[in-house]
Known about the structure:
By secondary structure, the protein is an alpha+beta fold. The protein has a domain at 28-98 and 139-169 and 193-239. It has helices at residues 2-20, 43-52, 58-70; strands at 31-42, 75-85, 90-109, 128-151, 158-179, 185-197, 200-204, 209-215, 228-239. A hairpin with a 6-residue loop joins strand 4 and strand 5 (158-179). The longest helix is centred in the first third of the chain and has 19 residues, at 2-20.
Amino acid sequence: MRNLLLTLVLVPSLLAQEQRAPVGGGEAAGLVQVEVEWIELPHEHFTELIAEGGAKRGEEFRARVGKLMRENLAKSLEVQIVTGASGEKLSSGSCKELIFPTEYQQRVMIDPPPPMEIPVPELRDDYHRIFTPTAFETREIGSLLEIEPMVSRDSNHIQMVIEPQLTWHTGNTVWLEHKNGAGNVSKIQMPEIYSLKFHTALRLKPGSCILAAALSPKDAEGTADMSRKVLVFVKADLVSPP
């Protein structure tokens, strides 16, 4: 009975390991290399390319976008590349950690402090009333890529769940500003953050690419610029082990 219970516990675990193990013939599959390319161009050029057709044929569509880049009508924003084993969660990033306050507490500084037997008077602007941060969060600003690729058993396809992201700190929003009688300025503010990101699942042949997303970049004021587009191409390939 004990052996039977042990078998029932081990079999599902072994099956799960087999499903997550690199497939496609073990060593023959090698490593998976995924490239994510971000290209910016005017919206009208993107509309013309879509109208011409071929968006589903990734290599042909990317070649036409490459022609616009050579003519200085489009430009590369970022290229992300990560290489790893099939079935593993892979990630890369080039980021700055932005630490910003999320909660504030109002405090009063009285100079000179009153004697203990005298009650503190009502708050007036001639006292040093300030807002002090009491809680903080961290946000990664820059380029991030998270991906989980899986090679098919015949090594003819690479399936992946992918989540790339570009993030900018575009400024700060001041929610409250106070200036006391001493001329000290105290602010409650939060960061403004603009992101280009998407989450999707793809299935590609090794060496091929596809247009995975079309997004709107930020303008000079940090809001969405609908007059331009950022095309995101994803390419996946098999890399022989060293």
